[in-house]
Amino acid sequence: AKPRMDAALEQFQSVSGLPADEARSFLEMAGGDIETAMALFFELQGGGDSGGGSRSEQVSDVPAVDFPPWHTLVWPGRAPILEAWLLQSLKFEGLGIPQPKNGPCGVLAVVEAVVLSQCSANPNFGPDHQVTEDELVRGLATIIARCCPDAGPCQVASWSGVVGAEVNLTPVAAEALGQHLSARVADFTAPGGAILLLYTCLHTRGCDAVRRDLGGMGASLVEAPNWLCSFDLVALLLRGEASGGVFAFNLISGEANTVWAPDLGVGLLTLAEREAGM
Q1: How far is CA 186 from CA 1, 83, 91, 183, in A?
Q2: Measured between alpha carbons, how far is 21 from 170 in angstroms, rounded to an integer?
Q3: Under a CB-based contact definition with an 8 Å cutoff, are residues 9 and 32 in contact?
Q4: pTM for the model
Q5: pLDDT digits over 91-100, tens only?
Q6: Which residues share a beta bridge with 143?
């Protein structure tokens, strides 16, 4: 399996011109299928309506703001947030969340996985199930609570006005999180809701803690050049720590790594692990 992956990586690099680490990320997002990876790459370069679009198309209409110091912990540089993120809500249609443009895939994958894992405990759950707002709230509360330090409250983000501009942070005790989210669920099911979840988890974990998780040196949760979710971002939402360089299995012993809490019902399995038969 590995030689096939190496050949696909070499072929994808020759066409895209990307360095190996970025090329591998595209292949992993595409499940190892080179044609899917190429389609995603060209969409993000401006080749399709579903992609990120050109740089001029991507820049939002959010008024100029003084970016807070933590802006670059989330985004790759001090630039306006791209439209792909500003448009993205967390509103379910059936079993999934529609995605207008590429970019926030990692956030949606975590929310969908956690919510559907919890819904699957219902004996009546099936392909025709419509995820309710209460089920979404339960999933969001589970994700946010994992980021909450033992001694501190959760910090729930909301827009103070225009989506993508200034945010308000409301401290909420972990035991009151579900009630608070129920009252504010419309914030998360509206455009910009995916960003609010990301901001909530960042500030609940704490900016200093996330900076340490990322190892400093200008790292961000959303990666340049195409504003895609990093593994660190996915790990923050799944584990409560922004340290994505952790495999589901120990590569030497093959045993499951305990950093992935089994009670969540979901985890992160890389393409390399799948190809290795783990």
Answers
A1: 45, 20, 9, 8
A2: 38
A3: no
A4: 0.75
A5: 999 999 999 8
A6: none
